[in-house]
């Protein structure tokens, strides 16, 4: 089983449960505005994407991105149940988001980006899809110590939302290399055990400046 298959299987299994998959409060800090285009990366059952859609109103739009087919179906059912139409759920990996450059005013994500096999590519995609001046609010985890290679190379451990975590220093290096230079830490937990390592949860906000080409 490869990484994508392991992640897809785990989250398909969780799609019909009430399990909380959050590691932060990205949605609470996001402050979506009427008319904005928003993207929720790792949208799961669609609850945060639906909240965004209700906030941006009929003149705005929301895209929910998730790799798990079961989560996409659950999100579509929830949107239909709540009669929210200005939202679309797309099945995709994190490194190749099928949206045009400079489309989003706001990107949010909650405990998802640690799953990316190429985290630099995933953050480059966030930078690419944001409009100049657009902003992100991301909740994620980082590893207190480097995760041993035997676990980093284990697809099921990565799918369990711990073995794919990088250290805090590496996380911020990836952000800077993507083009995000001005960052704000909105919340950060103390270390706690997860799987066979220690992690911390963090919520980070930042914005895309207008000085770099949006197609990078």
Give a description of the structure.
It is a single chain. Strands 1, 2, 3, 4, 5, 6, 7 and 8 form an 8-stranded mixed sheet that branches. The protein contains 8 helices and 8 strands; from the N terminus they run H-H-E-H-E-H-E-E-H-E-H-H-H-E-E-E. With 216 residues, it is α/β, with parallel strands linked by helices. The model is unreliable at 212-216 (pLDDT under 50). The longest helix has 13 residues, at 69-81. Helix 5 packs across helix 8 (168-178).
Topology record:
Layout: H1 3-14, H2 26-30, E1 37-41, H3 47-56, E2 61-66, H4 69-81, E3 87-91, E4 104-110, H5 119-129, E5 130-143, H6 149-152, H7 155-159, H8 168-178, E6 183-188, E7 192-194, E8 197-207
Parallel strand pairs: 1-2, 1-4, 2-3, 4-5
Antiparallel strand pairs: 5-8, 6-8, 7-8
Helix pairs in contact: 5-8
Question: What's the short story on this structure?
Answer:
The protein is of the alpha/beta class. It is 33% helix and 26% strand. The chain has a single domain (3-207), classed as Rossmann fold.
Radius of gyration: 16 Å
CATH level-four homologous superfamily name? Vaccinia Virus protein VP39
Biggest sheet record = 8 strands, mixed
Strand content: 25-35%
Give the terminus-to-terminus CA distance.
32 Å
Structural descriptors:
216 residues; disordered C terminus; 8 strands; single chain; Rossmann fold
